[in-house]
Design brief:
Elements (H helix, E strand, L loop, with lengths): L17 E9 L8 E11 L7 E7 L13 E5 L3 E5 L4 E5 L5 E11 L1 H6 L5 E3 L6 E5 L4 E2 L1 E8 L2 E5 L4 E6 L2 E7 L4 E2 L5 E5 L3 E5 L6 E7 L6 H21 L14 E6 L6 E3 L2 E5 H6 L4 H8 L17 H21 L1 H16 L19 H19 L1 H15 L7 H11 L1 H12 L5
Parallel strand pairs: 1-11, 18-19, 19-21
Antiparallel strand pairs: 1-2, 2-7, 3-6, 3-9, 4-7, 5-6, 8-16, 10-15, 11-14, 12-16, 13-14, 17-18, 20-21
The structure holds zinc ion.
Length: 440
């Protein structure tokens, strides 16, 4: 049986702690929206010096019936102990001296985020907002073998490219298997009712795969052209300054799929697909926020593995990326546009400057203060960039990305130490601004 076979990829070195991860997500034809039946299996492998305990993050919103509890069954071979801490959303296995165990779990999961954020127009199963609908170890990588089964009248889109595996009885099953171990929180998918969505396939586009548009919201043709042009231009910009877009080790293919939704605030990069608010996309004067999402291919939660709760986590995962999107804008729209972005950051930050909402970037352990993370963050990076020069900053971004992308346990200190090696004076200035020792 495949789950017990040795994984040749890791034969030479240490094994991934969680390997051969197989998950089946099943969406009922009838029944409550945003509920999945989940069955998953994985191997736990302890290396020589590991402790006897393995802790996985697991669960949704407390108090909203979305954390699996009474409907959860867990079995293991050989038998190891486990505890499930509902409040902490933690699943802990005690290996009792065993080096390997095969775990099987089954449960129903209600996605509170999906139900709340996307309000019935679609279900996007994202691991954001601490909704961990399958258990994983943050920062670790695993090979995934995923199937999603849903009624015929839904489109199914995954963070990695799905293929149709089975089609029977009004249900269809899509499948993917990652060819390399990928970050374990990156198993994401969307289920879109075809009654509400129109799928546009863009065979001739160099950078866009499919676009899922909501039928009831009009988007001007010029905006669609702008999307195609800007996607190509920003992928080119980031590829030139950081690394090529595609990367088989990250499971990143060479084209982006866009999925639109009706919520006004939630744009997200979900590895190979980007979810975006269609109202905003149709109406806003520019679509730079999409460049920010494209930038997350390089700078963000899929590559910079600094955990929520760490000092400076959202400076690393968000502010750096936001400023890179500004540098793209300078290149693409010109200096005046860039100056306008800096002005608007100043005016947004000015509204909270000196108030109790005015916190240091270093304190941004969670993404819970947009003005600080995006506006103040961009302003202070801009101060350092004025000192060290744009070209030097981009070279440093490339160094930082090359050195730390995909490495677990990233800390803010790793970032600032590397910057000190590149330009000590600018690093000290930026560090003081980030920690709030000096103000802008
Ligand atoms: Zn972001």
């Amino acid at each position: 049986m495949v789950f017990f076979s040795a994984n040749s990829m890791f034969a030479a070195g240490e094994k991934n702690k969680i390997s051969n991860y197989k998950i089946e997500f099943f969406r009922e034809k009838e029944g409550s929206a945003n509920v999945l039946h989940v069955r998953c299996e994985f191997d736990i492998n302890l290396n020589q010096n590991d402790t006897d305990t393995v802790e996985l993050k697991f669960g949704g919103q407390l108090g909203e019936d979305s954390v699996p509890d009474s409907n959860l069954t867990i079995s293991s071979y050989p038998a190891v102990d486990y505890t499930y801490d509902y409040e902490q959303k933690k699943l802990t296995f005690r290996m009792k001296g065993e080096k390997h165990a095969h775990i099987t779990m089954e449960y129903d999961f209600l996605s509170f985020s999906s139900a709340f954020i996307y309000r019935e127009i679609c279900e996007i199963w994202e691991t954001s907002f601490s909704e961990y609908y399958y258990p994983f170890i943050f920062g670790e990588k695993a090979l995934f073998d995923v199937t999603v089964t849903a009624p015929d009248n839904y489109y199914i889109v995954g963070s990695y490219p799905f293929s149709l595996e089975q089609h029977a009885g009004g249900m269809k099953t899509y499948h993917y298997k990652t060819t390399n171990p990928v970050v374990s929180h990156a198993c994401i998918f969307a289920i879109l009712p075809d009654s509400r969505y129109r799928r546009i396939t863009t065979d001739n586009d160099q950078t866009i795969n499919d676009i899922y548009l909501i039928d009831s919201i009009d988007v001007p043709a010029a905006r669609m052209k702008e999307l195609a042009d800007m996607t190509t231009a920003s992928v080119d910009f980031f590829s030139k300054h950081l690394s090529p877009y595609s990367n088989e080790y990250l499971g990143i293919e060479n084209k982006i799929t866009y999925i639109f939704h009706t919520n006004g605030f939630s744009n997200r990069n979900n590895v190979n697909f980007i979810s975006v608010s269609q109202d905003k996309f149709a109406q806003k004067p520019h679509i730079l926020p999409l460049v920010h999402e494209i930038g997350h291919r390089w700078f963000g939660e899929w590559t910079l593995l600094i955990g929520d709760g760490e000092f400076g986590a959202y400076f690393i995962k968000e502010s750096l990326n936001e400023y890179l999107s500004f540098l793209f804008a300078k290149n693409y729209y010109g200096q005046d546009f860039f100056d306008g972005l800096i002005d608007s950051c100043q005016s947004a930050y000015g509204k909270i400057k000196g108030s109790d909402k005015d916190r240091s970037l270093y304190d941004m352990k969670y993404n819970n203060n947009n003005t600080i993370v995006y506006n103040k963050g961009s302003l202070i990076i801009n101060e350092a960039v004025k000192k060290m020069g744009e070209e030097q900053w981009l070279l440093f971004m490339k160094d930082f990305y090359s050195k730390y992308a995909g490495k677990p346990d990233l800390k803010y200190e790793n970032f600032i130490e590397l910057l000190k090696q590149a330009d000590e004076t600018s690093a000290i200035l930026l560090d003081d601004l980030i920690k709030g020792k000096i103000n802008i």
